[in-house]
Amino acid sequence: MLAQLEVDMEVVESAALACTGLVALNPSPAQALSSRLRERVDLFIVNEGEFDALPEIHRAPLVVLTLGAKGAQLLQHGRLVASAPSIASRVVNTVGAGDAFAAAFTVALLRGRSHEDALRAASRVGAAAVGDARSQPEVQG
Q1: CB atoms < 10 A from the CB of 49, how many?
Q2: Which pLDDT tens digit goes with each residue over 24-68?
């Protein structure tokens, strides 16, 4: 299961607790997480601002930290275990780039890719998302 916090926190927590497989969470927008949810999440995927706002996840089992132009890192219980450089891309639209990255990393991990390969794949998908205006269509009023 992959979730983010634009969905109601109670729904995310209920789904996570019911899930019998991997639970990945992008806690965006950053907000306080219950201890039950923190303990159930196998993988947190955060940007620098979210990481700074949520010190309680710094030593979680797995944390992907996206660093924009500086690439991405994977921390395991607070220790750096993998990293990947950013992929150069002309930025057209940043909306949804984090979601695309999170989905790509989670899928790559579930397919058995190494941590570094999963980070590289997610970085490629994130770069493709920011480089294409169609990655997030405009909302019609």
Answers
A1: 11
A2: 999 999 999 999 999 999 999 999 999 999 999 999 999 999 998
Helix extents (H) in the chain: 9-18, 35-40, 48-53, 97-110, 115-130
* DSSP per-residue letters across 57-93: GTTSS-EEEE-GGG-EEEEETTEEEEEE-------S-
* The pair of three-digit structure tokens given for residue 63, joined into one six-digit string: 């944390």
Cα 133 from Cα 39, distance rounded (Å): 37
Locate tokens 């019998």: which residue? 20
Q: How many Cβ atoms are within 10 Å of 39's Cβ, its own excluded?
A: 12
Going by pLDDT thresholds of 50, 70 and 90, the confidence category of residue 100 is confident
**Residue 100 structure tokens:** 């695309």
